[in-house]
Structure formats: C-alpha cells, structure tokens
From TrEMBL:
Family indicated by similarity: Belongs to the LysR transcriptional regulatory family.
Highest taxon of the lineage: Bacteria
Keywords: DNA-binding, Transcription, Transcription regulation
One protein family per Pfam: HTH_1
Cited InterPro entries: LysR_HTH_N, LysR_subst-bd, WH-like_DNA-bd_sf, WH_DNA-bd_sf
A GO molecular-function annotation: DNA-binding transcription factor activity
Source species: Pseudobdellovibrio exovorus JSS
SUPFAM superfamilies (UniProt xref): Periplasmic binding protein-like II (SSF53850), Winged helix' DNA-binding domain (SSF46785)
Domain HTH lysR-type: 8-60
Protein name: HTH lysR-type domain-containing protein
Length: 287
C-alpha cells in the first residue's frame, strides 16, 4: 500500500524498475496506464521528468529533485501506516467481483457467502454482466476480480483457471415432443445482444448453425431469456448449472443431451504486493 497519489506512485515505480513495462507489473495496470500517469504528472509540474531511450527511463534534473521529495514522503508514510493499518484491521473491506450471471449465480456467489462467518467485516459487491465490460472494469480498477474468457486475459493479470462452464440448448416444456431439427429450422434463437455468439458457437460445433433462423430475439438479462424461453418465444444455449433448477421445476427442457459446449473461464485479478487472508480465502473457494 502507498499513500502516494497514483501519478507519484507511477513515477516511483518507474524509478525503481527502470522501464514502463516493469513498472506496470508491480502497479497492476497496463503500460498505457503508467505512461498516462507520468504524462499527467509532467503536465501538472510543467516539466520533463524522464529522458526516454531504448535502455529505459533516465531521470532529468527535475526528476531527481522530485525523487528526493518522494523518498522523504515515503519515510513519513512508513511511520503513519503503522498506526493506520492497525486501525484498518477493524474496518469494513469491500470486494468487487464482475462476471457472467450464470457462473456468478451458480458457483461464485454460493461458494463465497460462507466466508462471511470467517471474515465478518468483508462486504461483497457482485456485478452480473455478460458483456465485455467485465475486462474493462478490471483494467480500470473498478472491480477487484473478474471472470473472463481466455482471450481476454492479458499477461499483466494474475489468473486462476476455473472449471469449464457447460452450455446446452434449452426450450420450453411445451416442446417436449418436438425434434431438434424442426426446432432449429422454425424457431428463433434468444440472445443477450447482437454480438452474443454462445448459441451459435454451440451449433457451429455440430455444423448446425446453417439451418437456424437468422433473426433473433434479444434480452440483456439471463433471467429474461429464461422467461422468454419458458413462454415459447424461442430457444437458447444456457449454462447447465444455471438451468438445472428450472428444468427440475418444469419451466425448461433440455433439447439435446448430445449437443454441448464447454466454455473455458478464468478468475482474473491484478497482482498485489501482499495478499490479505480474505483474498487467499476467495481464491481457494473458487475452482
């Protein structure tokens, strides 16, 4: 933890590591983020702090003067933090986790709620989102953890591979006696938005996409999609874990047990210098 402002923290990281790339690793932000903070600081001070070269970042005279200020601030900070951190042990801590609704509902939230008895001052904030906003929320620091697909994970992030989420095709109970080829040919797909390819990905795996209708229904909520399916408006690929209770209650039926799609997911976060016990417990609870 540092009490330095983000721009000064970036300056100190670049001084210690010598390059923007290495500084980004210890700060847990992108290289662009580090550069933007340095430029913001230079603009604020109306001076140049580094000479940039292929060998790294070298301090200017003005940069060396600022370095002395930072070192002095860190000495004072060290004494203050020992008192502040002692009080912080008795304060509320919020953890923000963002990810697809299906996996948060079926696995993340149920697995983390038991931690409340061990960490009574821990507060969770869950953002259920099926959009690319999850990765942007993590990169911007809005959330602490995000559940992402492999292609969204960058090398600056730490990650833990989660059990793949299995998707199957679901329709309303009234379609129980209908054959899958007839459903694909005559009924529309229901998706979250125009770029939602989950059902298409499943069908493409079995070379069935070409027989489907091109026009789809859209709803930006998994619960809304489930309701639309149960009312006979169409079909969709849903997480097997999410759909299980609705199949049991008779709202939905699985259209095929042979056609499945396993979505690979990872729990991602940016590296921390220290991992509090509650962070370790969160990582251990999710698999």
């Amino acid at each position: 933890m540092s009490l330095l402002s983000p721009p000064l923290e970036a300056f100190w990281a670049v001084v210690r590591k010598g390059t923007v790339q290495d500084a980004s690793y210890i700060l847990g932000i992108t290289q662009t983020g580090v550069t933007q903070r340095i430029r913001s600081l230079e603009k604020q001070l109306q001076t140049t702090l580094f000479i940039r070269s292929r060998k790294g970042m070298k301090l200017t005279n003005e940069g060396e003067a600022l370095l002395q200020f930072v070192k002095g601030s860190l000495e004072i900070e060290g004494m203050a933090l020992s008192k502040i951190q002692k009080a912080a042990k008795d304060s509320i801590t919020e953890v923000y986790i963002s990810g697809p609704p299906s996996i948060l509902r079926s696995r993340v939230i149920p697995n983390l709620l038991p931690l409340k008895s061990r960490f009574p001052l821990l507060r969770f904030r869950f953002n259920l989102s099926d959009t690319t906003d999850n990765v942007e929320s993590l990169k911007s620091g809005q959330c602490d953890f995000a559940v992402l697909e492999p292609h969204q994970v960058t090398r600056e992030m730490d990650s833990k591979i989660l059990k793949a989420e299995r998707y199957c095709l679901y329709g309303p109970a009234s379609w129980k006696r209908r054959l899958l080829p007839d459903i694909l040919k005559t009924e529309p797909i229901i998706a979250h938005h125009s770029s939602d390819l989950m059902t298409y990905n499943l069908l493409s795996k079995y070379k069935l996409k070409s027989v489907t209708q091109s026009e789809r229904h859209y709803a930006n909520s998994t619960d809304a999609i489930r309701l639309m399916i149960s009312r006979g408006l169409g079909y969709a690929a849903l997480s097997e874990d999410y759909a299980a209770d609705f199949v049991k209650s008779g709202d939905l039926i699985k259209l095929s047990s042979q056609h499945v799609y396993d979505l690979k997911l990872s729990l991602c976060w940016y590296p921390r210098v220290n991992r509090p016990d509650y962070i370790q417990a969160i990582l251990k609870s999710l698999a």
